[in-house]
Design goal:
Number of helices: 2
Largest sheet: none
Distance between the termini: 49 Å
């Protein structure tokens, strides 16, 4: 007797593997989109903040302009990433 599996079983298993790979690829693509939007938006906002850092007078920020711009840049990046995640989540809910 042969140990070979019937052709229809092999076909369905290969299709399941392809479907799982497609799901994994979509998840990776979504992650890259979110991070790209977050870092890009954070870079744009931090570029604007650096131009006006001397005019910003918040009591929670350090007096050093470098530290203040670094903290505001990190906050802007996290905010843009969160907005991108929210947008993709809303888009997926509509589908």
């Amino acid at each position: 007797m042969s140990n070979a599996k019937p052709l229809h079983i092999w076909f369905f298993k290969s299709r399941i593997v392809e479907i799982e790979q497609a799901k994994s690829d979509r998840t990776l693509e979504t992650t890259v989109q979110v991070l790209g939007i977050g870092f890009g938006g954070g870079a744009i906002i931090s570029g604007i903040i650096v131009q006006h850092i001397d005019k910003i007078n918040l009591p929670l920020l350090p007096k050093n302009p470098f530290s203040a711009s670094l903290i505001l840049s990190i906050i802007a990046t996290i905010g843009c990433t969160f907005i991108a995640m929210l947008g993709i989540w809303i888009k997926k809910r509509k589908l």
